[in-house]
Design brief:
There is one protein chain. By secondary structure, this protein is of the alpha+beta class. 53% of the residues lie in helices and 21% in strands. The chain has one domain. Helix 1 runs antiparallel to helix 2. The relative contact order is 0.17.
Length: 113
């Protein structure tokens, strides 16, 4: 029985397996980074919108959209309820991942301590 070259096949198989594992780790790391970016952008957009919440919904949501865009996200939804702004943003990712988004809420205290 001639087993010459069988180690080469094993090395190629192990190398392919390591490549797949490295790709999976890279995709997960990219997703985690995008999720952190979405949370950060949503928080900052909500805070920016809250600063303008007493003016009008258009002003609050326009400011929130500008801040979200400056932080690498796209504002998907902005709702002003009283002096509270609710926003939802999404960030672009690689094609292997679903759309990654985050929501945040911020407001200003109108009366009282």
């Amino acid at each position: 029985m001639n087993e010459r070259g069988s180690a080469s096949v094993l090395v190629v198989a192990v190398g392919a397996l390591l490549g797949v594992i490295a790709l999976a780790v890279g995709v997960v790391a990219t997703g985690m980074a995008a999720h952190r970016q979405a949370i950060r952008a949503a928080d900052l957009a909500a805070l920016a919108g809250a600063q303008r919440s007493l003016t009008s919904q258009a002003a609050a949501c326009s400011m929130a959209a500008d801040v979200a865009r400056a932080n690498g996200a796209e504002l998907e939804n902005c709702v002003l309820s009283g002096a509270t702004v609710n926003v939802h943003v999404r960030v672009p990712t690689v094609e292997l991942l679903p759309v990654i988004g985050a929501s945040a809420r911020a407001g200003v205290r109108v009366n009282g301590p």
